[in-house]
Amino acid sequence: MKPVALTCGEPSGVGPELAAKTWAALRDRLPFFWIGDPSHLPPGTRHVEIASPAQASEVIDRGLPVLVHPFPGTLSPGTPNPDHAAHVIAAIEEAVTLVSQGAASAICTAPIHKQALQDGAGFAFPGHTEFLARLGGVNRAVMMLASDQLRVVPTTIHIALSEVPGALTADLLRDTIRITHAALIADFGIPAPRLAVAGLNPHAGESGKMGRDEIDLIAPVLAELRAEGLSLIGPMSADTMFHAAARTGYDAAICMYHDQALIPIKTLDFDRGVNITLGLPFIRTSPDHGTALDIAGQGIANPTSIIEAMKLAAQMVAARNR
């Protein structure tokens, strides 16, 4: 397959270290290249500068293939440089261009520091998901967190908990379920996906005693989509959805807000979780953690999540090609 594009992310975080560790783990298993400034890599990192993604497969056994994207100024691990912000954004844009042109098969993004991008470049997006949706030309993208034990999708994402009831609309929930269903078929090779849908309130509202969102909003959407042939369970009480026996009954859980989805998967499989953006015209994965500025430059960052993200990207490419 064409190589996977790995973006540099925030260079003052653990991204450069993770790129080097990913190459050490996967150089014999899948082709990829890193977009970034080679001077940011840990000292002694074996790397080969390439002129195009096509060269990645030819040189990956000799070192990390680097598609050079020079950054201005100095790098200080743990302290973002405002001069770097525009270049972090440009590296993501470059990866999208390459995958859209067919030069790369998928994108894996190292973590970004959203505050640093906002301060240094006026970044107007809550995170990668919304930015990639804009770059991909889609009105709505969906965030999934996945591991071998669980797949979860939050319907609302990076907003305050107090804003969730107002943001949760029938259109948003309907689109989230449809995009997830389509991605499970196309990108995960599941021909007839089973989706479990959480309620918003404790005990899924308990027949209206603890809120009517399940009765007035969630249940009608599920009835509509069941009529279209989707296999849906719910609305379910979120506190009974994630134990081992319950998880055998569905392929992905649709949750109503960020923590309702992310707490279960991070509790079950913190190191191996992968962030995936569904609904894009290209495949994008990412490790399920942040920039870890507090340990940057120390050589102790755990690469498990980004390695899993790279492997899953390759698996999704294979599934989509089939």
UniProtKB/TrEMBL annotation:
A GO molecular-function descriptor: NAD binding
Main location, first listed in the record: cytoplasm
Binding-site residues, substrate: 128-129, 266, 275, 284
InterPro entries in UniProt: PdxA (IPR037510), PdxA_fam (IPR005255)
Signal peptide stretch: none
Record-listed E.C. numbers: 1.1.1.262
Annotated positions binding a divalent metal cation: 158, 203, 258
Cellular component terms per the entry's GO annotation: cytoplasm
Keywords: Cobalt, Cytoplasm, Magnesium, Metal-binding, NAD, NADP, Oxidoreductase, Pyridoxine biosynthesis, Zinc
Pathway: Cofactor biosynthesis; pyridoxine 5'-phosphate biosynthesis; pyridoxine 5'-phosphate from D-erythrose 4-phosphate: step 4/5
Principal EC category: oxidoreductase
Cofactor(s) required for function per UniProt: Zn(2+); Mg(2+); Co(2+)
Compartments where located: Cytoplasm
Keyword set includes Plastid: no
Substrates-to-products reaction catalysed: 4-(phosphooxy)-L-threonine + NAD(+) = 3-amino-2-oxopropyl phosphate + CO2 + NADH
Any single biological process term in GO: pyridoxal phosphate biosynthetic process
Gene3D superfamilies per record: Isopropylmalate Dehydrogenase
Co-factor note (free text): Binds 1 divalent metal cation per subunit. Can use ions such as Zn(2+), Mg(2+) or Co(2+).
KW Magnesium (keyword) present: yes
Function: Catalyzes the NAD(P)-dependent oxidation of 4-(phosphooxy)-L-threonine (HTP) into 2-amino-3-oxo-4-(phosphooxy)butyric acid which spontaneously decarboxylates to form 3-amino-2-oxopropyl phosphate (AHAP).
Miscellaneous information on this protein: The active site is located at the dimer interface.
Subunit text: Homodimer.
Record-stated family: Belongs to the PdxA family.
Name of this chain's protein: 4-hydroxythreonine-4-phosphate dehydrogenase
Source species: Roseovarius nubinhibens (strain ATCC BAA-591 / DSM 15170 / ISM)
Record gene name: pdxA
